[in-house]
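A common beginner's mistake is to predict each chain separately and then try to dock the pieces by hand. The better habit, illustrated here, is to supply every component at once so that their relative placement is modeled jointly.
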Amino acid sequence: MGTLKVYLKRVLFLKEIGGLAMLTATILVFYLISAPFLSIENIRNILEIAPELGILVTGVTLLMISGEFDLSVGSVFALCPIINIMLINCGWNVYLSAIFALLASCGIGALNAIVTLKLRIPSFVATLGAMMVWRGIVLLITNGWPFPFVERAAPFEKILVGKVGIIRFSLIWYGLIVLVFWIILERSRFGNWMFSVGGNPKAARALGVNPNMVKAVNFVITSFLAGLSGLIQAYRLEAFLPSAGVGLELDAIAASVIGGASLAGGVGTVIGSVTGTFLIRSIDNGLVLAGAPGYWFRVFVGIVLVVALALNKTIEAKVHKMR
Amino acid sequence: MDEVPLVELTNIHKSFGRVCALEGVDVSVNHNEVVGLVGDNGAGKSTLIKILSGVYQPDQGEIRWEGKKVKFSSPKDAIRIGIETIHQEAALVDKMSIMRNIFIGREPVVKIGPVGWLDIKKMAKESMKALEGVALYLRSLEAPVEELSGGQRQGVAIARAMYFKTKLLILDEPTNNLSVKESKRILEFVTDLKSQGVSSIFITHNLYHVYPIADKIVVLSHGRKIGEFKKEETSVDKLTELITLK
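With all components supplied together, the output reads:
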């Protein structure tokens, strides 16, 4: 009994527990509604699309932990691949143009950081503006038309989303990104600074941590990861869509929060962001299999978001009593 | 007593826009001394300690540390020299574990390859040691600070300062919002610090807290120093009168 309690405690202490419980429940429900949900075929489907949201969510989570938002990720998600394909069409080297597009994404992140931290405009508003500006620019430079894939980019496509066994390369990239950022967050000095800056910027500053530096780095990382996610989707679809990533910023915030991140900053985990991502992707996919109209997606994500949060709060209160 | 003071602030001026927060204040702290800094709201206490802890730079005046002129361009500079400040609301990060709180900004790392990883084992061991140093025994180092009582939090902040061999500890209203018992504990901490050779500046509204433990009391009012007394020269009643008169 005693050891059981210790184990129970250890499990309940995990910040990801609410999201994890919801994920398990969701998978179970969809499996009961329609058994093919857990077929190899369908699992492959989910694994194929999850990284496109997940990589972006990793960044959004990190930024949220350090106390800021980025609503422009959906627009960067569209802009980065568009820059990439336009430069390729201009005759640029495929890889060089991809690197340039990712650097441009980093630049947008840096701009978000400057507007938020130097001009002291709350990031929610600053990046809402950025979201509109960059989406508008995407539409302006494409006239709203998608760009088709070009054969010349096939080798790069293989690296980004080529098939290996039942999965695509994008899943491996996602795994690596999760690993790297887990280490940075949990096992590096910078990770400790992120938690302190998001949790109590005054304390962090008094202890010699520079909040603006930490936040700026995270703005850049977030934008970079948004651009990379965008590239991965564009190459998987073999189409560069000006409308890609519309509404993605809110899915990303939902995934982060379901995974245990706090809108107030200072709290969150990388593993939690993975749970949130898979939860959202499972809902999306499960509803289709269940034959529900696509509109149900938003309804379910909304419900799951609120329930996961409520679950986290309840567990937190329980844990508090157990200590 | 011709010794060089640990820290000496001379003719410190600081204004924010048209508001003059400090107008030529001189304060010094000797080795092994507890200085009480008192005054009403808006007297300039906060501004003065923010200058001493590197958060603000003075418009005019100089800071001497063990006789040498110093300039702090950020809190990091002050910490490096040995000045640690425990701010009222900004000492600890609520959501972070006790262990992680103790090492914010000064995390120990182990080099594996070109990168330094957090030395979690060392953090656990050393934070235990730090807390024992101030006789603070907590159940779990992994627990977030928000689960501690007000007194325990101050204890953690003081343990941190002690662990990093601070020479001057600045306590900003450390007994605010604390129970009588916990306040007493904090006062004991400060007395202990002195016996270990650490000087401190104790900022408070509460003369009954600071008087018993202070060696010297400095009174500020409207950005000026209106009194500086050795403990023997004054009493709580005299100080109260001085503060409320102005």
